[in-house]
Every structure is written in structure tokens, then in C-alpha cells.
């Protein structure tokens, strides 16, 4: 992990990060290479062409809003073109920043994001380094320290205010790790179906390369993704499952996805168990009553171990409430961000 213990705050960028060179200011680079090119149907040209096959109108609308911003990492001459959905408004309350699950993208927020905007919130949907649609052609490290520092640099460059940081599933571990290391950047936490008690990637980190690549290839397969959706959602039709599978695996079609995923897996992954009690921010925990992936007793344990937390359980809901119950989740986030959720 780049010689850095998990939970220690980096004094500077992780070692060994080599990114595409930038020319001029960050904003100039964004104008030049940030995905300004569009297809005839309005999608950013950097998205895989398979985006055209997606039928879900909310996914298509959010995909059309994805752009890449240059995020400076390492020396003043290097940056990563990082995929985000930027807010259309700036609100009086602090911004809401939406992370995503393991091996996913900002398209996870296709249903909840417009409702947050409708509620008047300044909302960012961000792709975590190594997943989503960031430009990783130079194959930067995608371990925990690199993901953390990349998010910090993005926050420092563009958001610049304490945020309500929202993390679903493994994204909750990303959020906890970030909040402990950069408390000045986080006002509150929203942790959805939080997967925070896994001890990293375990034995997967020790797999021979050839086995790791075979396993990762399986991870993006349509049958496995279909089965994962059956586990994650509380009953969806086959047609919806097929379309949502196309949404969920779209980022896997980028040429560097496999290398970035193996880099994360072999680095050991997230183990935030020791950090949970260090969280100082107020937290809202959201879980689905019918979650088949995260057991309710884990949510109760997290509620007890956090210093200041409230919990909400949604009925008739599985592992991804922000996809299954977007109105309920949007209202909870909006109320919590304004201090009305008790």
C-alpha cells in the first residue's frame, strides 16, 4: 500500500503514481480533454459504445451528464481525468457527494440523483479511482491510499467545502476511511447498506496473476452480474435485470478495467474495522429490510460503534436502497443534510 499504513494520513501523494501529463491549468485541460466530445445521441465520447444499448431513461440521462475533470495527483505536471456528474446548482447547505459500491460507477445514482437536485441539493456523483469511467490509460495505483488521495485532491480542487459524504455498500468503507483521514472535508456521513466489516480482500490478494485475471474476467460476465442483481434487489423482472446488468457492467468494458481491478485486489483492499470508532462526524445509516448481503446485526453493530449515528430501515427493500427506494433515500439524505433527520 505504497509504504503507508491504512488509516494513516498521507503527507503527500502516494509514491509511484504516474499519470497523463497536463498542459496549462486544470480548467484548460478539462476543456481540452475532459470528454467535451459527444456522440450523436449526446453521450460523452469516452463512454463505451455499449451505452447506446441501455434502455433505462434515467441511466441514459445521467450518462449524458458525465464529464471528466483533471485531478492533480503527484507532481504539478501530472493528473488523472476523473469522471463525475457535477451539480447544476450551488445550495446554501454543504454539498452532497455520492460515492458508489465496489466495482461500480456513478450511474448507480441514476434514480436518486435527480430527486436530490429536485430537493434543491448541490449533488456530486463521483467515480472512485479504479472504477467508473476515469481515464486510467497510464495504469496508476488503485489501492486504498491512492483512492483516498485522489478523492481528496478532487474535493480540494472543485468542491472546496465540507461535504455530506454518501457511501453505499463498500462505498461506506471508502467514506469512513476518507472521513477519518480528512475530517476537515466531511461534515456528515450517510452509510447505505454499509459493508465495513470485511478484512480486506483476504486470500484474493495472494492469487497468482493468471488466476487473478481469470477471476476478474468472471466478475464482469453477464451471468454473474445477473445473479448479483437477483441477490441485491428485492424482486425485479428479467427485462429490468438485463438492462440494469448492462448499466452495472458498462465501466468494465474500458480497456484498463481489468488491470485496475487486479491492482486493487492484490493491494489488500479496505479494512476499516479499527477506524469506525475514530469517526467524529454525525452519521445516518440506511439499510433495506430484505438485504441478503449485509446482515442486520452488522448494521446494528455499526450503529453502536459509531460515536454519533442514527439508523433508518426501509421496508420491502434489498441491498441497494438508492436504486430500489430512491424517493425514500433522497428524502432521508435531504433531511439529514439540513439537520431535520432525527
TrEMBL record:
<feature type="region of interest" description="Disordered">
    <location>
        <begin position="1"/>
        <end position="42"/>
    </location>
</feature>
<dbReference type="InterPro" id="IPR000639">
    <property type="entry name" value="Epox_hydrolase-like"/>
</dbReference>
<dbReference type="InterPro" id="IPR029058">
    <property type="entry name" value="AB_hydrolase_fold"/>
</dbReference>
<feature type="domain" description="AB hydrolase-1">
    <location>
        <begin position="96"/>
        <end position="331"/>
    </location>
</feature>
<protein>
    <recommendedName>
        <fullName>AB hydrolase-1 domain-containing protein</fullName>
    </recommendedName>
</protein>
<dbReference type="InterPro" id="IPR000073">
    <property type="entry name" value="AB_hydrolase_1"/>
</dbReference>
<dbReference type="GO" id="GO:0003824">
    <property type="term" value="F:catalytic activity"/>
</dbReference>
<dbReference type="Pfam" id="PF12697">
    <property type="entry name" value="Abhydrolase_6"/>
</dbReference>
